[in-house]
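Quick one, tokens below. Sequence please?
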């Protein structure tokens, strides 16, 4: 979106309007879907002490001014996760939130600084139930938009087919010839040089200062993700434990976590966890993530102590965050995220 063709021009708005009306219809259908299954809609506060503690997420910072003029830092949340989990600790059992969220340093055909996450949680249920939820929501969006298939950049995916389930280990082997878990120990320690050698053989360029996580991300982005969700959706599951800061370990293999992501047409749509409820382990992971953020970006975000205090009171749960704007894009065939956002954020940082 450029200053020469603003979204509010009548001719541009008329081109976007069918996508926006479809967005409203999908929103209403999804809300009914959750309410029919006993979910309560909630609204997590956007202003938070911590915006989230994942190394590669960037927040918008602000400050709160008290009645006597004192100030304190606050952030616009990158996800309603912390607020929703506090509600689970308070006694809620099935909740969903159409949450407006903000992420800095992200703009492009699939990224917008302000967007909508459809986030939902179930207590006392296995995280595999979220996989079924995701499949249902894909079908629902397609039916509501009148789409027989999802499409993006001449790629297609059938939302009515059962998603393929593929572990990270299987995906790295299939698409890169890399034995990922050979470089992950039972205690979660990783073998940087082993993964570097395997990635180099796969044709991925490695820098001398790349750590294990950097190499993992390069293989994932270059070799794996472009092949996901083709023909039918893909559920990519069982992430290495170091790549799932908020997820609990898988009982059958402590090297991996109860985490999956949903893909269609090579586009990541959802990220889901079997939720970690151990505050000591969660603090350790947050600190490790912030150490990595400091290494790469020279900054770190505070840890929400209130969130850690709530974790021991939270029941066993699973939760998923789905990029709602992207879902609308695929269901309507929109080429850019701005086409499905009613009032796009001004593009002033070029």
């Amino acid at each position: 979106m450029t200053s020469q063709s603003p979204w509010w021009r009548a001719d541009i708005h008329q081109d976007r309007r069918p996508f926006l009306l479809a967005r409203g219809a999908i929103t209403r259908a999804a809300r009914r879907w959750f309410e029919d299954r006993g979910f309560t809609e909630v609204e997590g506060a956007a202003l938070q002490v911590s915006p989230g503690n994942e190394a590669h997420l960037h927040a918008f910072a602000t400050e709160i001014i008290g009645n006597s003029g004192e100030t304190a830092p606050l952030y616009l949340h990158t996800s309603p996760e912390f607020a929703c989990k506090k509600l689970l600790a308070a006694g809620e059992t099935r909740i969903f939130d159409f949450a407006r969220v903000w992420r800095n340093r992200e703009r492009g055909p699939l990224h917008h600084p302000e967007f909508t996450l459809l986030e939902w949680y179930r207590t006392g249920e296995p995280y595999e139930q979220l996989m079924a939820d995701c499949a249902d929501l894909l079908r629902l969006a397609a039916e509501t938009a009148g789409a027989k298939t999802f499409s993006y950049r001449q790629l297609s995916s059938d939302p009515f087919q059962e998603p393929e389930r593929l572990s990270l280990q299987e995906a790295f082997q299939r698409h890169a010839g890399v034995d990922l878990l050979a470089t992950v120990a039972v205690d979660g320690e990783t073998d940087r040089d082993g993964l570097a050698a395997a990635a180099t053989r796969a044709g991925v360029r490695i820098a001398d200062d790349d750590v294990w996580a950097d190499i993992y991300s390069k293989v994932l982005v270059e070799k794996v993700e472009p092949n996901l969700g083709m023909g039918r959706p893909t559920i990519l599951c069982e992430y290495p434990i170091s790549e799932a800061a908020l997820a609990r370990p898988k009982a059958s293999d402590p090297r991996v976590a109860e985490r999956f992501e949903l893909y269609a047409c090579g586009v990541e749509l959802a990220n889901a966890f079997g939720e970690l409820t151990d505050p000591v382990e969660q603090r350790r992971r947050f600190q490790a993530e912030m150490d990595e953020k400091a290494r790469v970006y020279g900054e770190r975000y505070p840890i929400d102590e209130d969130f850690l205090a709530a974790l021991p009171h939270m029941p066993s749960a699973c939760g998923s965050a789905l990029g709602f704007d992207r879902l609308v894009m695929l269901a309507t065939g929109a080429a850019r995220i701005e086409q499905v956002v009613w009032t796009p954020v001004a593009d002033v940082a070029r």
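The CA atoms of residues 204 and 219 lie 7 Å apart. The mean pLDDT is 96.
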